[in-house]
Structure formats: structure tokens, C-alpha cells
Amino acid sequence: MVEGRRLKPVTNVVSTKKELIEALPLTGSVGLVMTMGALHAGHRQLVDAARKENETVVVSIYVNPLQFAPGEDFDTYPRNLAQDLELLGDVDIVFAPTDEEMYPREPLVRVNPGEVATRFEGKTRPTHFAGVLQVVAKVLNLVRPDRAYFGQKDAQQLALVRTMVADLDMRTNIVAVPIVREESGLALSSRNAYLSTEERNLALALVGSLRAAREAAAAGASPEETEKVLSEALEAAEGVAVDYATIVNPDTFQRVSSNAKQGLGIVAARVGPTRLIDNMEVTFG
Ligand code: AMP
């Protein structure tokens, strides 16, 4: 070995809880990034943030069956561990368990995500957030990280994870990472892989409507007027079936009050068979 040369770091890939616990360091800070694989530059941003702030970086790659309802894309969700490991680069531990390892039996004790989980994403996907919080709680308990990194892309998920950690006194700091977008503005998502070239263009209506709302708010529109701009822009778009388009308080996911200074524009829509979500902060000027 040449003295002083930095070798390519070796990632410890483990698939059992026992191996994971044994691989964790006894000292030093640990940062966790939870993913379902099909990794892209959005996930990479979470890993980079974790790398900057922690001595050890743990990434989980697991397509959690509990957060998919029957008829959703659990079976077809893209899975390619070898490719994901290439993209990850400099991380210390990758935890990629099987379903049997994560759920040796139907869990009897379940995390109840509460009322916020019934709105917006939860309205269309009623069992989704209970499944998300179940697996997030399990992996937080296994890894016990100092910090866990979640993307602003899934804003309602982020709010619910923060609420769970607060309400259950979990000792991990939740760090939000801004949305990574393509040059076109499209928010990166593993589900973009389902889009045809034409659908990718149609999908730009999501970010377009959010930008229109942000501009309207900055130019003095009230929260109500801003919401109208947002929903009308998305409704007017061709080839896009709107699920919701609204302005909420980013912590509570309640409608923003009419004298709010800030809000979060949130949209969900189907482009062809693919359901996409996006969001953007708006400041009322
Ligand atoms: P997923 O693999 O889709 O479950 O996402 C794993 C994590 O990556 C979640 O915390 C997501 O919010 C985050 N994430 C996904 N896409 C993006 C993006 N475009 N920008 C930032 N974070 C993202």
C-alpha cells in the first residue's frame, strides 16, 4: 500500500439485524439514511449530508411491504442492489434486509400515525403512513442514530416522522434535506422511471404550478388566492389528473391561516398510470 493514499472505502453490506448491530461502531456519531433503493441524486444528497455531519453513515435499502396497499406498485417497484451500491459510494454500512428478517411475523404492536396521516397522501393511501412509521421506528431502534436524514420531497412523511420522534421520545435528530430536481425542474423520484418521454414533459406541470403559486404569493396574493393559482394551474395542465393542490402549514399539514407569513404548496397528480407528488415553500409578501 502506498503511504498516505486513500483507498476506496469498503462498505459493509449486511442483511440481518444481528450483523447490523455488530457492524455499528461503539463510539462516534452515526447518521442514518433510509431508502427503498432505486437510488438517484436525491438519495445521494441525503447521504452527502449524513457524511458531512457524522463519523459513521448507515444507509438502509428496503422496499417496505407495509407501506404499500394492495394494487399499488410493491411488486414492480425497481430493485437493483448492485446498482444502488455503485451509486452510494462512500458509506460505511448498508442494511438491506429481506421481508422475513424485517417482519418474522405480522407485527402485533403498530405505530398509529394519528390524524395528519389521514389527509392528503393518507386520503389516497389510507394505510401508507402507518406502514412508513412502523419501519422507520424499527430501523431507528436498531441503528439508534444521532441523526436521520429525510427528504423534503416527502413533506408529509417528514412531518409525521418528526411527530413520532417527538411523541415517543426517540433520541434521534431528524434532519430535513431540500428537494433535488432535474434541470427541467422535475423533482427526482424513483417512480420517474415509470414515465415515458411524453409523460416526463406533462409531469412538469407539478413544479410549474408550484412555481406559479410561489410567484403569486411573493407578489402579494393571500393564502386563499395563492391556493387558487396553484390548483387552477395544475387543473389546466393537459394529461394530468389532479389528486390535490393546496397550501398547508408544513408542520401540522393544516390549511394555512389567512394571515400566515409562510406555507407549503403541496401537489399530487397522476400522469398516465404514475402518481407523482411535489411541494414548495411559499412566502406571502
Ligand atoms: P424513497 O427511497 O423514495 O423512500 O426515499 C428515501 C428518502 O429519500 C426519503 O427521505 C425521501 O424523501 C428522499 N428523497 C427522495 N427523492 C428525493 C429528492 N428528489 N430530493 C430529496 N430527497 C429525496
From TrEMBL:
<comment type="similarity">
    <text>Belongs to the pantothenate synthetase family.</text>
</comment>
<keyword id="KW-0963">Cytoplasm</keyword>
<dbReference type="GO" id="GO:0004592">
    <property type="term" value="F:pantoate-beta-alanine ligase activity"/>
</dbReference>
<feature type="binding site">
    <location>
        <begin position="36"/>
        <end position="43"/>
    </location>
    <ligand>
        <name>ATP</name>
    </ligand>
</feature>
<feature type="binding site">
    <location>
        <begin position="188"/>
        <end position="191"/>
    </location>
    <ligand>
        <name>ATP</name>
    </ligand>
</feature>
<keyword id="KW-0547">Nucleotide-binding</keyword>
<keyword id="KW-0436">Ligase</keyword>
<dbReference type="InterPro" id="IPR042176">
    <property type="entry name" value="Pantoate_ligase_C"/>
</dbReference>
<dbReference type="Pfam" id="PF02569">
    <property type="entry name" value="Pantoate_ligase"/>
</dbReference>
<feature type="active site" description="Proton donor">
    <location>
        <position position="43"/>
    </location>
</feature>
<feature type="binding site">
    <location>
        <position position="67"/>
    </location>
    <ligand>
        <name>(R)-pantoate</name>
    </ligand>
</feature>
<comment type="function">
    <text>Catalyzes the condensation of pantoate with beta-alanine in an ATP-dependent reaction via a pantoyl-adenylate intermediate.</text>
</comment>
<keyword id="KW-0067">ATP-binding</keyword>
<comment type="subunit">
    <text>Homodimer.</text>
</comment>
<feature type="binding site">
    <location>
        <begin position="151"/>
        <end position="154"/>
    </location>
    <ligand>
        <name>ATP</name>
    </ligand>
</feature>
<feature type="binding site">
    <location>
        <position position="180"/>
    </location>
    <ligand>
        <name>ATP</name>
    </ligand>
</feature>
<dbReference type="GO" id="GO:0015940">
    <property type="term" value="P:pantothenate biosynthetic process"/>
</dbReference>
<feature type="binding site">
    <location>
        <position position="157"/>
    </location>
    <ligand>
        <name>(R)-pantoate</name>
    </ligand>
</feature>
<dbReference type="GO" id="GO:0005524">
    <property type="term" value="F:ATP binding"/>
</dbReference>
<keyword id="KW-0566">Pantothenate biosynthesis</keyword>
<comment type="pathway">
    <text>Cofactor biosynthesis; (R)-pantothenate biosynthesis; (R)-pantothenate from (R)-pantoate and beta-alanine: step 1/1.</text>
</comment>
<feature type="binding site">
    <location>
        <position position="67"/>
    </location>
    <ligand>
        <name>beta-alanine</name>
    </ligand>
</feature>
<dbReference type="InterPro" id="IPR014729">
    <property type="entry name" value="Rossmann-like_a/b/a_fold"/>
</dbReference>
<dbReference type="GO" id="GO:0005829">
    <property type="term" value="C:cytosol"/>
</dbReference>
<protein>
    <recommendedName>
        <fullName>Pantothenate synthetase</fullName>
        <ecNumber>6.3.2.1</ecNumber>
    </recommendedName>
</protein>
<dbReference type="InterPro" id="IPR003721">
    <property type="entry name" value="Pantoate_ligase"/>
</dbReference>
